[in-house]
Amino acid sequence: xxxxxxxxxxxxxxxxxxxxxxxxxxxxxxxxxxxxxxxxxxxxxxxxxxxxxxxxxxxxxxxxxxxxxxxxxxxxxxxxxxxxxxxxxxxxxxxxxxxxxxxxxxxxxxxxxxxxxxxxxxxxxxxxxxxxxxxxxxxxxxxxxxxxxxxxxxxxxxxxxxxxxxxxxxxxxxxxxxxxxxxxxxxxxxxxxxxxxxxxxxxxxxxxxxxxxxxxxxxxxxxxxxxxxxxxxxxxxxxxxxxxxxxxxxxxxx
Length: 254
Prior knowledge:
This protein is α/β, with parallel strands linked by helices. The protein is built from eleven helices and seven strands. Strand 2, helix 3 (54-66) and strand 3 (72-75) form a beta-alpha-beta unit.
């Protein structure tokens, strides 16, 4: 089919009735677009909990409406799991495994054949420890299996007219907190509220990370560095409403 690699077309011919872990990012949105074009019987799944933001939820709802899919929302009380809140090096692996176990419990009642996610061929297991959990649970990654890199997905998304094509990679709120620092509701809420304020002000694709000394590190895209410098006083005041101090860094588009 025009605009969709033949390998992906064949993948969904051979593997019907999937459930997709849907984040609303570049990769999973492209997969949703492909499934709509190919008329795949798809159920998108979004995990709701303290590690996600309201903006994430709204984005997912809007995209599911746009592509006419009915999503399943799974609430996960991540703060009840000490292994996650202790925030060790294996947090991502443990969290991913928990989420997909709960996902399968939900979607198997809808006669799903398998679960899939948006991992692509550029993703490294060394940088993404959660990939080990995917392998253990038999989660399929069509983009990776078909050899499609992040660059490929962005190009295909752009050619398809998807407005997510140049969207920076997203990640949950827990990634803003360094390993070894305990994750608390207060830390997550402060991060979420501060990022929400900054986005409303005009900084759209940011990361506001907590440093080990409890201060904030605001990472901004190169394209918004001029905006940051122009409005630094106002931006700094917003961050200092939530953190005792702030430093600045550059965020890369993955």
